[in-house]
Amino acid sequence: MLGLKHNVNLLVDYDPAWEGEFVREQRRISNALGAIARSIEHYGSTAIRGMKAKPILDILIGVMPLADWEKCRESLLQLGYDYAANAGVPGHHIFGRGKDQTERTHLVHVVEYMGESWCSNLAFRDALRRDPLLRDAYVAEKQQAIARSPASRTEYNTLKQTFIDSVKASL
User: Fold this and answer.
1) Is the whole model's pTM more than 0.70, yes or no?
2) Which of 105, 111, 130, 158 has the lowest CB atom count within 10 Å?
3) Which PANTHER family is this protein grouped with (predicted)?
4) DSSP string spanning the chain?
5) What pLDDT shows up at residue 102?
6) How far apart, in whole angstroms, are the C-alpha atoms of residue 141 and residue 144?
7) Whole-angstrom distance between the N-terminal and C-terminal Cα of the chain?
8) Are 124 and 44 in contact (CB under 8 A)?
9) Residue 44 has pLDDT above 80, yes or no
10) Which residues contact 28 (CB under 8 A, 6 or more apart)?
11) What is the mean pLDDT of residues 122-141?
12) What is the pLDDT of residues 4-33, one digit of tens each?
């Protein structure tokens, strides 16, 4: 099951249906964007089998050059996404989709294909997939972040960023 209301942070048990949902959404996006999308990847915690996650599907779309993100905008809007112009993630153009205006089910991050964000996010995902101890440590970090910030996604993300950065630096 996907969906998390705005201003709520919580982790749920891994749902094997997330993999199928990603495949369906990847097809929709790929059909809409064509060759503009060099690659479309499932990343974030819902991409890690067995790991607790916020029930929001994170999707990474690689474009080259990054300026081609503009060519994605209209197609993603037509697929039901909205553009988060002020999301505050450098090098990311973020689009969200939800069941209504109060709940998020999908987040798309358009980044430069094979750029730093593309490579580091996928390396982090793959490290979590390989290493159960790293997975457990990350879940503990996320639970602490939620305890400190149960309502602000921005603060939640900031609280866990040091952990993410330290893992990425070691990869």
Assistant:
1) yes
2) 130
3) GRPB DOMAIN PROTEIN (AFU_ORTHOLOGUE AFUA_1G01530), GRPB FAMILY PROTEIN
4) ---EETT----B---THHHHHHHHHHHHHHHHHGGG-SEEEEESGGGSTT--B-S-EEEEEEESSGGGGHHHHHHHHHTT-EEETT---TT-EEEEE-SBTTEE-EEEEEEETTSHHHHHHHHHHHHHHH-HHHHHHHHHHHHHHHHH-SS-HHHHHHHHHHHHHHHHHH-
5) 78
6) 5
7) 32
8) no
9) yes
10) 79
11) 98
12) 998 899 999 999 999 999 999 999 999 999
Beta bridge pairs of residue 96: 82, 107
Q: Which two tokens stand for residue 54?
A: 């916020």
What is the tens place of the pLDDT at every residue in 73-130?
A: 999 999 999 998 877 788 999 999 997 767 999 999 999 999 999 999 999 999 999 9
Which residue is it, tokens 């067995």? Answer: 50
Q: How many residues does the chain have?
A: 171
Tokens of 17: 């249906």
Sign for the CA dihedral angle at 161, 166, 169, 171 comes to negative
What domains can be seen in the chain, in order of their start residue? 4-169 (3.30.460.10)
Neighbours of 95 (CB within 10 A): 24
Q: Is 149 exposed, middle or buried (CB count within 10 Å of its CB: 0-12, 13-18, 19+)?
A: middle
- The rounded distance, in Å, linking the Cα atoms of 26 and 104 is 17
